[in-house]
Amino acid sequence: MQTFWYIVRRLLQAIFVVFVVTVVVFCLLRALPGGPARGILGAQATAAQIAEFNRQQGLDQPLFQQYFMYLGTLIHGNLGTSYTLNTPVATLIAQRLPKTLILTIMSTILALVIAIPLGMWQSWRRGRAADYVTTTVALVLYSTPVFFLGILLIMLFSQDIPLLSSQAPQGDGIAVIFENPAAMVLPVVTGAAGTLAVFSRYMRSATVENLQEDYVRTARAVGTPSRAILLRHVLRNSLTPVVAMLGYYIPVIFGGSLVVEQLFNFPGMGLLFWNAAQSSDFPVLLGCVLVISIATVCGTFLADIAQLLIDPRVKGDMK
């Protein structure tokens, strides 16, 4: 019962957070100088044309009235219509989101598959040359901007050694991704690099901390093999902070996808958001931010639930 009310409380918090995000983003977009009319109609648009555009889109109404109109359409599942593409925003997002999700999931899985064993191995080799070398490589990866790493990989593996394509799979639908998986290698590796560095550091720190706990000393004292101590006891407890961070890291992963999609011309949410920002396409911008916000709160919510399942000590915090 305690777990049930904890989940209900977290759900209500998530809904409130999404609501606040929509208010903040809506107000910030409306506060931008010039408004969308100039971006849509061009620099040569007359004052009368701009006024007519604002009237048609309801942009001449008071801010709170505009927001409640937007909220009213949102409740019915209508995210508005793109100013530039004249297409429902929900349709545009439905076309692009699966591609971004696939790119994000593949990058995250690649990062975790490497980061978790790497972090544990580093902790086991703590203070040795191998630990220093891998720690330095992780810090270099973490400090390298995504766009620079992407350009570097393109120059190395598309130009100097022409093994991989510098363009992600093009075309509509997600089937194109699986028809040409080799074209996804560079985007996925670029997106995974920073995440890998961060989570390997978290995993190393958590494992080092757990190796100093009493239960590990007890296991050693009774003759439990080192590998069994790591895999049966330390791994589970060390995963807790990594799982928690994964939820909070979703906005960063999405932000990285925006850059990766730009670099490799991948037609996902990131490219859609970028093009909308260039043309002040407010409905598309709001729709993208809303989806990313929902993904973020869902990620943190699932991370909290996963923490609850992995680490029974978290139940103590629910009281």
UniProtKB/TrEMBL annotation:
SUPFAM superfamilies: MetI-like
InterPro entries tied to this protein: BPD_transp_1_N, MetI-like, MetI-like_sf
Any Gene Ontology CC annotation: plasma membrane
Origin: domain of life: Bacteria
Position of the signal peptide: none
Entry's localization field: Cell membrane
Recorded family membership: Belongs to the binding-protein-dependent transport system permease family.
Protein name per Swiss-Prot or TrEMBL: ABC transporter permease
Organism: Bifidobacterium fermentum
